[in-house]
Amino acid sequence: MIDIYTPVMRALVVGSLLLATVMVMVVTLNTARAAGALAIGSCGAFGEAYDFGTLDEARQSALAKCQGDACRW
């Protein structure tokens, strides 16, 4: 009698794993939205910025942290 339920159990396990995977992906996509930037100067100086709401905010912060000459984003 156990052999009759084996395909059903396999289907339930596969369905549960797929549902769990989709839920993890949905949560990750909704929370992992942050902008970052790196500014580098000609002399080797650098400035970094991460976890900003927009790319422009991250770029401005990275350029402000770069203490060298001719820092570019």
How would you describe the overall organization of this protein?
The structure is a single chain. The chain is an alpha+beta fold and 73 residues long. Helix content is 56%, strand content 18%. Strands 1-2 form a two-stranded antiparallel ribbon. The radius of gyration is 24 Å and the shape is rod-shaped. The mean pLDDT is 82.
Helix-strand sequence: HEEH
**DSSP summary, beta strand count:** 2
Number of helices: 2
Portion of residues in beta strands equals 15-25%
Strand order of the largest sheet: 1-2
Distance between the termini: 67 Å
Q: What would you call the structural class?
A: alpha+beta
| Portion of residues within helices | 55-70%
Average pLDDT = 82
Q: Looking at the structure, what is the overall shape?
A: rod-shaped
Please describe the biggest sheet, giving its number of strands, its sense, and whether it closes into a barrel: 2 strands, antiparallel
**Rg to the nearest angstrom?**
24 Å
Low-confidence stretches: none
